[in-house]
Every structure is written in C-alpha cells, then in structure tokens.
Amino acid sequence: MYKSFFKVLVAIAPLIVASAVFAQAPTFTISDPIVLFGETETKEAGLAVNTREAEVLFVTIDTIAVEDDPITGQPAVQCVMGFYYNPVTLQQIGDPFVIVGNPRGNLQKLTVTYNPVSNQYFVAVAADSYSPNSSRVPLMAIVNSSSVAASAGPIAKVWTWDEGTATSYQDTAVAASAKNGNMIYVSEYTPAGESEGVIGLLYDKDGNLLTPQMMRLDTLEPTRDEDDPDVMYLEENDVFLFITNIDPSTSANRITATIIQTTPDANGNMQAGNQQVVSQLRKSFNAGHPSAIENPFNKEFIGVLDYDNGSEGGDIFYFNIGPAPNYIFTEARDQVPYFEAAGGVPFSHRHPRLAVDPNRGVIVISHNATGGFQGMVFTLLGPDGSVLPGRPDTLYVLEATDTAVSNDANFHDVKYDPHSGSFLVIYATGGGLTKVTRLTVTSTHLVSVDSWMLMD
User: Fold this and answer.
1) Is the whole-model pTM more than 0.70?
2) Where are the domains of the chain?
3) Is 60 exceeded by the pLDDT of residue 11?
4) Mean pLDDT for the chain?
5) Given Cys at both, which of 190, 300, 333, 383 links 361, Cβ 3.0 to 4.6 Å?
C-alpha cells in the first residue's frame, strides 16, 4: 500500500512543487556585464549554447569596423560578427570573425541557434537593399564550433535565399532538430497585395534546401497582418513549434501557434498543421511579440506576450498540445500578468524571452525596459510556471543602462548554459554596445523523491 502511494507521489511530483512550501523567494547572483567588440559600434544580439562543449556563440552586427562580405567578397556596409566564449569563465576563445556581410545596405533581424547533431550553429539575418529590386533578402550561414574552427576556419557555409526577390523579408527565427539535424528558417515577408505574411523553409544539417518552395505559415487569415515569428524545437515530439501574432478580423491582435514537421513530404513540401489561437486578451489592447517554451517540470507550454507594444505590460499564457496527427492546442490554465504597466508607467518593454534552468526548477523571462526606466530586467517563475514570490513590482534589474536597449526584435536574447549552470543574457544598447551578463540562480525550487520510494 505504502509503496503504491509513493509511486503516485512520484507521478504527481510536478504538481507538488506548486505548493507554498516550495514557492520560496529565489536567490541569485548577477555578474558584471562584459562588452563585446567595444572598439566599434554594434546593434542587435543573439546567442547559442553548445551542449557538447563548454562554448557559446555570441553574435552581433558591426556597423563601423566592417570587413569584406564572405558571400560576394565585396566591402560590406555592415557585418554579422561571431564570438566564441567559454561560458564558465566568460573568457573569449580566439578572435571575433565575420559571418556574413551586406555590401549594399544595412543588416537587421539577426538570429542564431545551435545544432546538436552537427555540433555547428545556424545563423540568419536580413540584408537591406540586397536584391536588384532593392528588396530585403535573407542571408544564412553555418558556423563551426571553435574546436573545428581552429583548423578549418569558423565558417562552414554561407548563402542567400531568393536573392532576386521583389518582396522583402524581415523578422527571422531559426531552430534545429536534435534527432536529424534539419533546420527551419521562418520569416516575415511582404507578399504582393498584402502588408505582412510569414514563410518557412527547411534545410538539412549541411545547409542544403529540403523545401524548394517556401511555405506560407499564415493560414488562419492570410490576408490579415502577421508579426514577430518565433520557432522552437520540441524534442519529445520531434517537431517544431512556430508561434506568431495575428491581426484577426474578429478582435485585437492574438497569438497563434502551429506544429511543423522536421522533414518535408514526398513532394518536398513543408508539413505544417493548422494555425491555432493560443492566447486570450486579458486587456483590451493588441497582443504581440510572443515567445514560448516547453515547461520540463509539468510538460505544459508557457508563452509570453506584451500588450500595446509593451506600454501596457505583458502576460503569461499556458497551453497543452494534443497528440499527432492533429496537435490540438488547448488552454492549460488562466492567463496571468508577468508585468503590469499602464501607458508606459512604470516603464515599457517588448519582446520578452524565455529560458529554463532544469536543475534549479526556475524559468526566466527577460525584458528590455524603456521609458521610466531603461535597461535589462527579468522575472523568475517556479517549476509550475507561476511568478516566484519576493519580486519587486518594478522587476529584478539585470543592468540599468545609460542608453535604452532597443524595443525592436532581436536586440536581446537569453539561454541557459548547463556548463556554468547559469542563464546568459545578451543585449545591445542604444549606445552601440553589445553586452553579456550571467544570471545564476542559487536557490532550488524542485522537490526531490528518494530512490527507495520507487522500489516495487
């Protein structure tokens, strides 16, 4: 009887952690920020964590000390720069290097992910005025790990997509499958006769295109505007989760999600499920700039959004994903605020980002604050996805910056690094500096069950 009880206890352990006993206020340390490439001026910021080696790749866009573009060989106007760092010591490994450049204009919407199958990184960015029609074109690259770069160089491959386009591509996001290494690229774009849409492409781990025809991912109401796409890989299901906001005809902007397979169909087409609404409107403002992550502690999914471009705060929404082949999304529980603001008071923010510390039972939401306060701030959630107690109303401060971190997309990112046991946060300030700070949670918010309870 008692052994059966303990088996039940183990099964419901993720629910037990939600009790008041385990919802204590967190403790943490924050490192002094380091500046990447401080001798020039940079914008935008991204990072990817290598899970095989103690290494992270930081990326930013250099706007002054530019070099030649690796694709064309021509002098670039702006360059994406890469930096290998040891996440434990926060020491740089080798010299910074050019990943891609634009000889015809500026770069924007920089994104990067780590591919655990190839032990490489996938980088994408949009190049202004690149096509013969002066449209914005995607540039992509595969970057080696530093151990390979020492002999073979950092860049494995660089290429463009739709180089002669008359449309423009903008907000970008990428992810990679941990099982087959296939990589997904998603992007806003401007289809003829419409304001905004979203498309997707699949590549194999070596950067070979698997889906020659791009696929429209805005299928719910294609003629309405879509913004702020993001994508992540779900290892247990071996699928990608695509999330974006939509301007539906029946309400203010809402957040939608779509399941995408990691392989194309027999005809080389991307396989995407139905685009479904996953957020509510707790406030009567447009909801946007979504991000989402799987909660490993209870298998729910956590999404975050901001209201009215962040001037009205932001919410956490929770959802479940049903089984294949339909993958029906259902609300797991009520939507709640992670930050309350009204008319930009106490401050505004946009583009919240999420990461999980699986060992401490903590989920972080990073925010870039502007207006009444400027800098990087954050919120910590417990393993049940609720805001942990003890947080100030004006949020925990990562760094107060002299100039505001831009509210535009791709100007900050956060990832958990297992080698240092810390969250790494990268952000580009309006003053032309890109900085990295390490946030280490020192309190534990998980319940443990002794192994003897598992005995038959």
Assistant:
1) yes
2) 1-30+285-319+346-456
3) no
4) 91
5) 383
What is the model's pLDDT at position 22? 54
DSSP 113: E
Q: Which residue has the tokens 């180089």?
A: 163
- Residue 409 contacts residue 12 (beta carbons within 8 Å): no
Q: Which three-class secondary structure state does DSSP give residue 249? A: coil
Phi, psi of 451 (to 5 degrees): -65, -25
- Rounded distance, CA 140 to CA 124, Å? 4
Q: How many helices (H) and strands (E) does the chain have?
A: 3, 29
Write out the two tokens for 5: 């009880």
Cα–Cα dist 298/333, whole Å: 13
CB 180, CB 162: distance < 8 Å: no
Structural tokens at position 382: 């417990």
DSSP label at 286? -
pLDDT in tens, 187-201: 999 888 888 899 999
Residue 208: count of CB within 10 angstroms of its CB: 11
DSSP alpha helix (H) spans, 247-395? none
Q: Give 242's contacts (C-beta < 8 A, 6+ positions apart).
A: 184, 186, 200, 217, 229, 230, 231, 257, 258, 259, 260, 272
Tokens of 349: 């923010």
269: which strand partners?
none
Rounded to whole angstroms, the Cα distance separating 409 from 44 reads 8
